[in-house]
Write a structure and sequence with these properties.
The protein is an alpha/beta fold and about 350 residues long. It folds into two domains: about 130 residues, no CATH class; about 130 residues, no CATH class. Helices cover about 45% and strands about 20% of the residues. The chain has a six-stranded mixed β-sheet, with helices on one face. A six-stranded mixed β-sheet has the order 9-13-14-15-12-16. A two-stranded antiparallel sheet has the order 2-3. α4 packs antiparallel against α10 and α5 runs parallel beside α7. The longest helix has about 40 residues. This is ATPase. InterPro entries: P-loop_NTPase.
């Protein structure tokens, strides 16, 4: 019987540029293979194949997805074996803590024909420049969308009853946190979703599928959802519970979800673009708009809210369009590198990693 799989992002294209959350997810690993090499060198395929093999053997596997390519992954972790494999190329550069002892660089560039690539040097440099320009434009559009989002939040922040918001938070904390654990908790910072070339993608169903109680936070921008999640995660850590903290893929300073598996609870922002409805026993809704915002706020500012919502949506679409454009050119770059690869060498490197994991598993 196969093991479980968990899917999430550890890097994101955000309103604050590319944001990296790899570090906490790699903590505790005793062996980390850091793959180096250009696009099209088979890094993602290798990681998927190794993950699938160990998952079929009954091990739980974590797949770290790539926000810039919907079909690729940036890493795979087999936590029971304390082993991970990650893409260590830009923009997710991994800083080794103990090179050689824990981390090992694996150079897939050994498999490419440099003379073939040299003939395509101008194309490679041109594509790289265009890709960088697309990401710069995307991040600028996301940032402009964030400023519009701040306008949106202001309508609700100015009409919030902070005392009621505190009461909602305290009630939730008191319901679940009754006993401190005598241990140092493992705390993982991740993204549950991301802005990708195909739009917003999330893994809420997968991440919460085996959690008994799911609390769906409804509300509006600025209605205290992220603040509640921050207080909840802080309390979980204070009480010694292992905690998964999922940041917002648009603004990494905000939170979208907290999972405390030892308490069998997941609390998450269930509004667009990751909006879900209760569908099983243990699912409940917590509506922050009803609980904390002055009644009639939506109606009072209907015209202004529609305007800000439309401007925000337009900017987000613009930002995604630049990611889509970057992906098209990245595919062209991958094609150039793939043509210069000797995949027999890649297969040999793959087999070498496989054998090392086999040894470490005994």
């Amino acid at each position: 019987m196969g093991g479980k799989t968990r899917n999430y992002y550890a890097g994101g294209n955000t309103a604050r540029g590319f944001h990296n959350l790899f570090e906490s997810n790699l903590s505790g690993l005793e062996r980390l293979f850091i793959l180096k090499g250009g696009p099209g060198t088979g890094k993602s395929t290798m990681m998927k194949t190794i993950g699938s093999k160990w998952n079929d053997d009954g091990y739980d596997v974590e797949y770290i997805h790539c926000a810039s390519d919907n079909e690729s992954i940036d890493g795979v972790i087999i936590r029971d074996l304390k082993i991970g494999i990650v893409d260590g190329t830009s923009p997710h550069v991994i800083e080794p803590a103990a090179p050689g002892a824990v981390e090992e660089y694996v150079n897939l560039g050994e498999a490419w024909n440099s003379s073939t690539l040299a003939q395509k040097k101008d194309d490679i440099l041109s594509l790289n420049d265009k890709i960088k320009s697309c990401y710069k434009s995307s991040y600028q559009s996301f940032f402009e969308a964030l400023l519009i989002h701040d306008e949106w939040e202001k309508f609700y922040i100015e009409n919030m009853d902070y005392k009621k918001a505190d009461e909602v938070c305290e009630k939730l904390i008191n319901t679940y946190f009754k006993k401190k654990q005598d241990k140092k908790p493992a705390v993982y910072h991740r993204f549950l979703g991301a802005a990708t070339p195909k739009g917003a993608v999330d893994f809420v169903p997968n991440l919460t599928e085996d959690v008994k109680q799911r609390i769906f936070i409804k509300g509006r921008p600025g209605s205290g959802k992220s603040t509640l999640l921050k207080k909840l995660s802080s309390k979980a850590e204070e009480y010694g519970y292992d905690t998964e903290i999922y940041h917002c893929g648009f603004d990494p300073h905000s939170l979208d979800m907290v999972i405390v598996r030892e308490l069998e609870i997941a609390v998450f922002d269930s509004t667009a673009p990751h909006e879900y409805e209760p569908e099983r026993d243990g699912d409940t809704i917590l509506d922050m708009y009803e609980a904390t915002i002055t009644p009639g706020t939506d109606e009072k500012f209907a015209a202004e809210l529609e305007d800000v919502r439309n401007r925000y949506s337009s900017k987000m679409k613009e930002a995604i369009s630049f990611l889509t454009e970057a992906k098209v050119m990245h595919d062209q770059l991958e094609g150039i590198y793939a043509e210069a690869m000797d995949f027999n060498i890649i297969n040999a490197i793959h087999q070498k990693i496989d054998k090392e994991i086999e040894k470490l598993s005994h």
